[in-house]
Amino acid sequence: MNILANKVAIVTGASTGIGYATAKLFAKEGAAVVVAARRQTELDDLADSINAEGGRALALAGDVGDEAFAKALVDKAVSHFGGLDIAFNNAAILGAMGPVSEMSQTDWNQVIATNLTSAFLAAKYQLPAMEARKGGSLIFTSTFVGYTAGMPGMAAYAASKAGLIGLTQVLATEHGPQNIRVNALLPGGTDTAAGREFANTPEALAFVRNLHALKRMATPDEIAQSALYLASDASSFTTGSAMLVDGGVSINRV
Ligand code: NAP
């Protein structure tokens, strides 16, 4: 039996990278998925490929920083698939990089809105739907940056992602009694568009790989497997955690 049989999931940031791989894996494991990002064509292609493979998927394009979109995703999950059990809130941007003294408030606000306020909005609408199902798994994609490592030039990103860990802890305590588990997933360097944006020269790529104890970046599929663990009953006693899946980047001293 597929481990997400009869479950309904929302996956954001599904047009590429970790979200794309996770949407495919959740669907393969039996979940009906509502896939979200801003790019309609990529989302439609993903939903078509899942449906063609015998899964169930629905695409909805929008901005995760928009409250109406956060609500619409939950409404779609409920109206098309009957409810909501799992939410992988994964969409994010690296945003403006550089010293804080040179960062505009507009750039700062954009990162916080996309990466952190989106999580508040998502939880606001996802939690009642999960309560109606008498349980669920809420997952936020955070990162080791701002948790186990300070990295110059990444203030807004680090602050937004560290904020997710605080949000995770509070929501886990608030909603544990309703059997809703809330966890943050902290990938290491992962070979996606965002990973390549950060490591954008051969030298930078070699540097980033070498930071990890495993001397490589993750594939999106490896991170998707960890999201599957947190989504499924295999992690039934895991809540409030900041789960590092980071190839040892947090403990490595090169
Ligand atoms: P990616 O390939 O750049 O994917 C980011 C996704 O987020 C895309 O699907 C993008 O789709 C979506 N997105 C961005 N802004 C959005 C918005 N305002 N509204 C809706 N969707 C939006 O990045 P990734 O590497 O897979 O990253 C996934 C998650 O892992 C992120 O939370 C990232 O911070 C985290 N992470 C990544 C790494 C890494 O090394 N790659 C390491 C640690 C943590 P559209 O452009 O179509 O909107």
Describe the protein's architecture and organization:
The protein is globular and about 45 Å long. By secondary structure, it is α/β, with parallel strands linked by helices. The protein has a 7-stranded parallel beta sheet, sandwiched between helices. Helix 1 (17-28) crosses helix 8 (220-231) and helix 4 runs parallel beside helix 5 (155-175). It is 46% helix and 15% strand. The model has no long low-confidence stretch (mean pLDDT 97). 48% of the residues are buried. Bound molecules: NADP nicotinamide-adenine-dinucleotide phosphate (NAP). NADP nicotinamide-adenine-dinucleotide phosphate is lined by residues 12-19, 37-39, 42, 63-65, 90-93, 114, 141, 143, 187, 189-190, 192-195.
